[in-house]
Design a protein that fits this description.
Structural class: alpha/beta
Shape: elongated
Radius of gyration: 30 Å
Order of helices and strands: HHEHHEEHHHHEHEHEEHEHHEE
Strand order of the largest sheet: 6-5-4-7-8-10-9
CATH architecture of the largest domain: 3-Layer(aba) Sandwich
Number of domains: 2
CATH topology of the largest domain: Rossmann fold
Largest sheet: 7 strands, mixed
């Protein structure tokens, strides 16, 4: 007997039981647990499990474990051509039956119950959600995820990289990170943090004379560095040189403050920057679409308030998406 004939007979055997087609109609739409399927099909767990086992053995469904539950779904991309053709034919005939329609209604009930359970949790936990979320996932998980919004083809410069914290946060989401610092001690610490991350390159250099060719970078970050440089104007001119037309710049630094002892204790040259100072530096260096935003203060920290500034290098040939 031809191989295709054997295959279609095997598939037909698996679908010969009407309950199995009901299971597939439901699992094609949503991933469900056994107990949820029992509710939809109005069948005992032993019967439902038997049909699931038969469909799994014949390659129609897949399962994954999550905690103490198994979640089942119809195999969407792994069916052979014969099975796909047979299923299209069967689905066309059975999906409009009164039994299938009732199953769909009960499925909506199961999904509504899921949403209700989630809503009840948030209704009862809203007042303590921040604390609970922080206990479960830490205070900065969302900040670690935000770089996923950037273009994955970018080359990003972490200018004044220090120990490499920003570089390692960005690296999973972009093509390449070039991390630059003038301190060998900082670069050694960054090397340890970077470890075997392949798309981070560490370079020694001054921000006033970056070891980069013209238009190398798609984006650059300057995080809590600017207050250490003696000539901010030169730094911004250098950043403009190494950014491509339309390239983006992100700065984070301190707002003006009066903590004079920072000069002696930590080598600060500048006691913060006002928004007008930053805007002037950027405009003079050929940046546009400038935005300076004061960051919310955290009562638990001891340092001065911070700001972020974003800008685009002026472009006459289009912008980077």
């Amino acid at each position: 007997m031809p191989k295709n004939s054997v295959a279609i007979l095997n598939h037909m055997s698996a679908l010969a039981e009407p309950t199995r087609t009901r299971v597939l109609l439901i699992l094609e739409r949503n991933e469900l647990t056994v107990s949820e399927l029992c509710t939809v099909l109005q069948l005992p767990q032993s019967t439902t499990s038997r049909h699931l086992r038969a469909l799994s053995d014949s390659g129609w469904i897949t399962a994954r474990a999550e905690g103490t539950s198994n979640w089942y779904s119809m195999l969407r991309n792994g069916l052979d051509t014969v099975a796909e053709q047979l299923w299209r034919l069967v689905r066309e005939q059975v999906s409009v039956s009164s039994t299938a329609v009732q199953d769909y209604h009960r499925l909506e009930g199961v999904l509504t119950e899921r949403r209700t359970t989630s809503q009840e949790f948030f209704s009862s936990s809203a007042g303590q959600w921040d604390r609970l979320r922080d206990e479960l996932f830490g205070e900065s998980f969302h900040f670690l995820a935000l770089p996923g919004l950037v273009n994955d083809e970018w080359t990003v410069g972490d200018l004044g990289c220090g120990t490499g914290q920003v570089a390692t946060s960005i690296a999973p989401f972009v093509k390449r990170v070039i991390a630059i610092d003038s301190s060998m001690a900082m670069l050694r610490a960054a090397k340890k943090r970077v470890g075997r991350t392949k798309n981070i390159e560490l370079r020694r250099g001054e921000l006033e004379s970056l070891p980069l060719d013209n238009t190398t970078l798609d984006a650059a970050t300057v995080m809590l560095v600017l207050h250490h440089v003696s000539e901010p104007e030169r730094v911004f001119s250098e950043i403009a040189r190494v950014l491509r037309p339309g390239g983006r710049l992100l700065i984070a630094d301190m707002l003006p403050h009066d903590r004079e002892h920072y000069r002696h204790q930590m080598g600060h040259v500048w006691l913060g920057f006002s928004d007008t100072q930053i805007e002037r530096y950027l405009e003079q260096s050929g940046f546009e679409r400038i935005r300076v935003t004061a960051l919310p203060t955290d009562a638990r920290v001891k340092g001065p308030a911070l700001f972020t500034a974003t800008a685009h290098k002026a472009s006459t040939v289009g912008t980077i998406n």
